[in-house]
Design goal:
single chain, Beta-Lactamase, TIM Barrel, eight-stranded mixed beta barrel
């Protein structure tokens, strides 16, 4: 300041000053030199302004631009800046770094059941727990929702990363006590390393996201490292998803039917409609591969609509050519019961009437997960199906959130014993006991029972002796095209 005053006679800038009460404050200061007639310095004139509020506003704006208002952690913007700086440091020092993506498991359920206020406090507590597990030199950020990132610079060994990941999993899974409520969540963590996996921001983020997704898919409450095979699987998944979008228009889908046999008479009384995808290059794609993709992308709605209408045409053909009372069973995904999809069920009921059929020709199969905390719109749609005479089967009973309260609360007609119980029935007495218990309970409540995955005469005999009503499986037939299914019905009608 004094040097510039000597050279130019003027200075302008910001200084820390003291008020009369001794409090330090920022001020904007302008000093001008006043000279005498002889050219010597006569005096200095200073004009100042207190800029405390201005600085506070600037600090607030900077804080909001760089930090998450809820948790106080770095936000997405600051996280990117920090990661960029750490990558520059890596290029100078060649010290590896690790990136972690943390996603809280079951946070949405806590938010929906206990409220957003509780959810916000849980996020704040989770942020504190994450901070407590890392070093001061590490960066913790919240990208949004229940997604957090951790930058671990200058990693000397990968075991250090695993130690932190284990610590995070342990602390994040501990109970959260909030306003007299106790909430439980866990975490899925994806880890990627620089330079072994990537050296640029976008690829590192993509890698961590892929690894986190795999951790969640593998059962949650765990961490997974990124590997090249994850990348290959993700690319395959993306290509499959792209192909799936055009499959319906390209007429690549087929509906196959698997007979369901009355164990008392041996006659085919029902058939489950099963979607198959005949890909022009991959051949027959497993439903295990494309159904989850269809649910994630929302394509399950148009696909499910097509399956139902194809099944309705099959029911019409059976009614016309075989005078058969055989029912077609159609699977409905929980996605199809969302509020925005309610129009489909109304349209189906009209479609069925237009074909001269009634609800007795159909059974819809739903999963137990749909009934868990079923919302009013789901109950309303189930009632609409019931009122139209369409029966309801509970699929894979015994493998999920099995609860007898479902059977009391909802109008269920059939329980389907999952094939995991049937598979080892001839060698595992526990599976026999569980299946017998399901059958007894169902019959006491007026429900019929269908056993899935029946493959041997021994399984059939055990089920028949236990009083099971129907059986479905390769012992009778694999899923077959509609023409083959009609041939089965014709053969049965001829031999009757």
């Amino acid at each position: 300041m004094w040097q510039q005053l000597k050279i130019t006679g003027m200075w302008h800038g910001e200084v820390w000053d003291k008020r009369k009460d001794g409090e330090v404050c920022p001020r904007r200061l302008t000093i001008n030199t006043i000279k005498s007639a002889s050219g010597t310095v006569d005096r200095y004139v200073a004009i100042f302004a207190d800029i405390t509020e201005e600085k506070q506003s600037e600090e607030l704006i900077w804080q909001q631009a760089n930090f998450d208002t809820l948790t106080g952690l770095s936000n997405r913007n600051m996280f990117h800046n920090r990661l960029e700086q750490e990558l520059k440091k890596f290029k100078r020092s060649a010290q590896p770094l690790a990136l972690m993506m943390i996603d809280l498991d079951l946070f949405k359920e806590v938010n929906d059941t206990l409220g957003h206020d509780v959810g916000d406090i849980l996020l704040q507590q989770a942020a504190q727990r994450i901070n407590a597990c890392v070093r001061e030199s590490d960066t913790v950020a919240r990208l949004g929702g229940d997604e957090f990132m951790v930058i671990l610079p200058e990693i000397s060994r990968t075991t250090h990363v695993e130690d932190i990941a284990d610590k995070l999993l342990h602390h994040l899974a501990e109970p959260y006590t909030i306003s007299h409520e106790v909430a439980y969540v866990s975490a899925s963590i994806g880890i990627t390393l620089c330079p072994s996996d990537a050296t640029d921001i976008d690829t590192l983020l993509k890698n961590a996201d892929l690894a986190m997704y795999v951790a969640k898919e593998n059962g949650r409450n765990r961490f997974r490292y990124f590997t090249p095979s994850l990348q290959d699987a993700a690319q395959k998944r993306m290509r499959l998803s792209n192909d799936l979008r055009g499959a319906l228009a390209a007429n690549q889908f087929r509906v196959y039917f698997q007979p369901i046999v009355d164990l008392t008479t041996g006659r085919i009384r029902k058939a489950e409609a099963l979607l198959r995808w005949q890909h022009p290059e991959r051949g027959l794609v497993s439903p295990m591969d494309f159904i989850p993709l269809a649910e994630e992308t929302g394509l399950i709605n148009t696909m499910g609509d097509w399956v139902f209408k194809e099944s309705a045409h099959q029911a019409q053909r059976m009614s016309k050519h075989f005078q058969s009372d055989c029912q077609i069973s159609v699977n409905l995904s929980p996605v199809q019961f969302r509020a925005e999809n309610q129009g489909y069920i109304k349209e189906w009921l009209q479609y069925v009437q237009g074909l001269g059929l009634n609800g007795k020709n159909f059974v819809v199969e739903i999963t137990e997960g749909l009934l868990l905390n079923a919302e009013p719109d789901i109950i309303e749609q189930l009632l609409a199906l019931r009122n139209a005479g369409i029966q309801v089967a509970l699929d894979d009973f015994g493998t999920g959130y099995s609860s007898l309260s479902y059977l009391k609360k909802f109008d269920i007609d059939y329980l389907k014993i999952d094939q995991s119980f049937v598979r080892n029935m001839e060698t595992d007495m526990n599976d026999i006991a569980l299946s017998e218990a399901i059958i007894v309970i169902a019959h006491k409540l007026g429900l019929k029972v269908i056993a899935e995955g029946v493959e041997t005469q021994g399984q059939k005999k055990i089920l028949a002796e236990a009083g099971c009503d129907f059986a479905q499986g390769y012992l009778y037939s694999k899923p077959i095209p509609s023409a083959e299914f009609e041939s089965l019905l014709l053969r049965e009608q001829t031999n009757r």
